[in-house]
Amino acid sequence: MNRGCPDFQATCRMTRRSLLRVGAAGLSSLTLPGLLRASSGGDGRPSPARNVIFLHQFGGPSHIDTFDLKPDAPSGIRGEFAPIASAVPGVNVCEHLPNFAGVLDKVAQVRSVHHRMKNHNSASYYSLTGHAPPLDDIRLRDTQELFPSYGSVVSKLRPSDDPAIPSFVSYPHVLRDGSVTPGQHASFLGKPYDPFFIAQDPSDPGFRLPELELPESTPLGRLEDRRGLLELIDRQASLLEYDATARGIDDFYGRALSMLASPRVKRAFDLGEEPDSLRDRYGRTTYGQSCLLARRLVEAGVRFVTVYFSRTIGGNGANGWDTHQDNFNDLKDRLLPITDQTVPTLIRDLDARGLLDETLVVWMGEFGRGPRIGDRDGKGRNHWPSCYTVLFAGGGTTGGAVFGSSDRIGAYPDTDPVPLERIGATMYHALGIDPATEVHDRLNRPLPIAADRAITEIFS
């Protein structure tokens, strides 16, 4: 080989980490293109992630009061909370996130995410699909022309290995700001790729899924009769957030039958199998038990789990993260204690069970909060999509990494700006799905599942 040729030079630039990634197969078994793919860290790499837990914080968490504090900013911008040291030298977090500080060496932060949507419905649709909405308006309505949710795309391209296990599960809220927020289901991909949606509160002592329970008068054998199954689901439709017609019962027939017959599915939803001590560590809140359930679901083989933190059943987290008023007390007394108890516990639990390497955890809202204090009651912060922070843990990402930065007041990206489109591309990349993969809409037009490239810089 000519030592001056680009291919040879590219091969020589392979780092030790790239060589280790090649693994036991040995260099002799790989062709030059294979070596180049291994060194690139691109979509040709072996995928470490099998599952995603997507923690969507509806309302918009304040990035400059949590993970990207600006203690040297001027009065009127600088928040009330002090920074504390974390497990990553030189990287601080808010004083009300001490447990998060202890796991930050397992978390990759992206501090320069940005877009232009200022309303909850349009911004949330953007953050749930990775595609910009046609307009920034609270009146944005769900239509079959809008893009499907991340989980629906994964359900189509990387379904669960066991047909009885749903590929995509979401709970325990339907996001809405006036109207229902678009981007929570499969849209033009079709009803078979909608999430298995749970409207019950996992923190309720009597939590169970009635839709997975058979009436005593209905033996399993009768469900082989299509009519019997449809009658059963029709009788239970009132238990679901979406009624039988909206969910497209014909498309769900085979899946419903296999789920009803599967002890593995029922066990996955049985939080009573967990020790009380672990349930206490997660927190006996809607969010805490929802995140514990997410761990059980990916352990059972569910490919994509979306947990919505929103207007919470039972009062834990009412109004989500929309801190227009009393921002600091709301964070200190309500939002940060729940978050600091639950999310670090989830990360530690996944790690202890050997699941963190194969499970990508994503924590994000639809935007951040404005740098200037004083919205509405003089103590709040307004919506701010121009710069905010997204967290990744596991799934092959580099713990302790910080990618991108905001300016001195947290208003705009300063280095490595990250368009919101790259977040979805990063999730797909972690699962080994090329973000350039195309799906077809109702007019059979080919559309890429992501509109930008993955943040490969945060992967090991």
TrEMBL record:
Pfam families: DUF1501 (PF07394). PANTHER family: BLL7424 PROTEIN, DUF1501 DOMAIN-CONTAINING PROTEIN. This is Sulfatase.
